[in-house]
């Protein structure tokens, strides 16, 4: 069932970043400013945010499999529409928005599905594998889109990475099954009592600022690499940049697995803090390192990919441990709603800073997110004494 959930997520996540993978080509064809390019990416995030709370209510009342099937199909159809019908800023923004609406039915319901199948002692590893699929799918999206766009056209690249989402419904409905004792759910609505839990709020804050950094990087990485002299000096800079970005983001899957597994052994907060410290330092400086030779740049970017995601699985696993089982779906949805709200803003802020002062100014805006996440992790450590990854009692304000 972990494999079914992970494959379903992978096929859907190919849609999330296919736009970012071909961003320079779309910017050139549609004559987009940095802010407008960021808004199109942010539209996907906005659609996701609008739908994520209703998805949380449904997933606590009904089988996650049906929510995942409907969401993935919506995402695939809208993304194919982007490839076929989008002609500029307005139509592109609208179609990406609808694709984001559908994605809300995939990612968090899948986390609920996985959490149902695993006890807390192994949940960090399982969630690391599942969430790691997010990074793997994101990386593959960049790789596939870059290769297809270089050989053919960016619209074909978008279409190629959209059709997989249409396979998710038969996979999750026919092959998947619900965990024992979860068929009859008792939740009747969105329970917001978790907002009185200080530890939960601190974990959500960590997740929010983590996403500020992560999604800013994923949206703008290829555009950055295409101005680095070591990349532009190659024979096919677009393909090299896309491949490096794809491998870097795919390595985030390894980062999630490492972070989740280590958090089961040495503590969630310790791993979260270490990951944020490393990624934040790289975010603060990479924009000024455009002069690096290709080997050094590649090593830095690949380390960046692992560090950016090591805190994700431990944070989401904590969420499932800090609330009552019947409200895990709602808690994850509230986490995602608040946490992904920063991803609407971050790419736009990055684009504004890029227009104003170049990449040396733009990347530190992402480092600010990592710094605020570190402060939130310190608050989380204060409100919850994390021991070897075990769940501590809820601490109400």
Descriptive tags:
single chain; 397 residues; mainly alpha; Growth Hormone, Chain: A; 0% strand; globular; disordered C terminus
Show the helix and strand layout.
Elements: H1 2-16, H2 18-21, H3 23-30, H4 34-61, H5 64-85, H6 89-103, H7 107-117, H8 120-151, H9 154-160, H10 168-175, H11 198-225, H12 229-232, H13 237-266, H14 268-285, H15 294-309, H16 312-321, H17 328-357, H18 359-383
Helix pairs in contact: 1-7, 1-8, 1-10, 4-6, 4-17, 5-6, 5-7, 5-9, 5-10, 7-8, 7-17, 8-9, 8-13, 8-16, 11-13, 11-16, 11-17, 11-18, 13-14, 13-15, 13-16, 14-15, 14-16, 14-18, 16-17, 17-18
CATH class: Mainly Alpha
| Helix percent band | over 70%
At CATH level 3, the topology is Growth Hormone, Chain: A
Uncertain segments are: 385-397
Rg, rounded, reads 20 Å
Please name the CATH architecture.
Answer: Up-down Bundle
- List the domain count as a whole number: 1
């Amino acid at each position: 069932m972990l494999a079914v959930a992970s494959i379903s997520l992978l096929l859907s996540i190919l849609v999330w970043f296919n736009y970012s993978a071909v961003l320079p080509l779309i910017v050139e064809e549609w004559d987009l400013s940095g802010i407008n390019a960021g808004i199109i990416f942010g539209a996907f995030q906005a659609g996701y945010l609008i739908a994520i709370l209703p998805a949380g209510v449904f997933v606590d009342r009904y089988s996650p499999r049906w929510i995942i099937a409907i969401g993935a199909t919506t995402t695939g159809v809208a993304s194919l529409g982007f490839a076929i019908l989008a002609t500029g800023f307005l139509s592109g923004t609208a179609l990406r928005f609808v694709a984001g609406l559908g994605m809300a039915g995939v990612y968090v319901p899948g986390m609920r599905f996985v959490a149902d199948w695993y006890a807390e002692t192994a949940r960090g590893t399982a969630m690391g594998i599942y969430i790691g699929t997010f990074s793997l799918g994101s990386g593959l999206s960049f790789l596939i889109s870059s290769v297809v766009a270089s050989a053919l056209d960016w619209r074909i690249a978008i279409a190629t990475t959209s059709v997989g989402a249409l396979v998710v419904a038969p996979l999750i409905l026919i092959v998947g099954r619900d965990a024992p004792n979860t068929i009859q759910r008792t939740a009747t609505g969105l329970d917001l009592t978790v907002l009185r839990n200080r530890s939960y709020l601190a974990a959500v804050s960590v997740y929010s600022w983590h996403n500020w950094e992560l999604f800013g990087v994923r949206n703008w990485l290829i555009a950055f690499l295409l101005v680095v002299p070591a990349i532009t000096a190659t024979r096919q800079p677009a393909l090299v940049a896309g491949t490096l970005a794809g491998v870097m983001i795919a390595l985030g899957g390894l980062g999630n697995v490492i972070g989740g597994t280590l958090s089961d052994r040495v503590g969630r907060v310790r791993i979260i803090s270490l990951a944020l410290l490393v990624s934040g330092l790289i975010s603060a400086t990479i924009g000024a390192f455009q002069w690096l030779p290709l080997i050094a740049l590649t090593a830095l970017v690949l380390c960046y990919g692992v560090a950016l995601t090591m805190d994700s699985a431990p944070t989401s696993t904590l969420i499932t441990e800090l609330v009552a089982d019947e409200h895990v779906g709602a808690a994850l949805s509230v986490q995602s709603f608040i946490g992904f709200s920063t991803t609407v803003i971050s790419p736009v802020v990055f684009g504004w800073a890029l227009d104003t002062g170049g990449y040396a100014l733009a990347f530190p805006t992402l480092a600010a997110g990592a710094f605020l996440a570190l402060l939130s992790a310190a608050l989380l450590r204060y409100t919850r004494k994390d021991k070897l990854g075990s769940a501590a009692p809820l601490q109400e304000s």
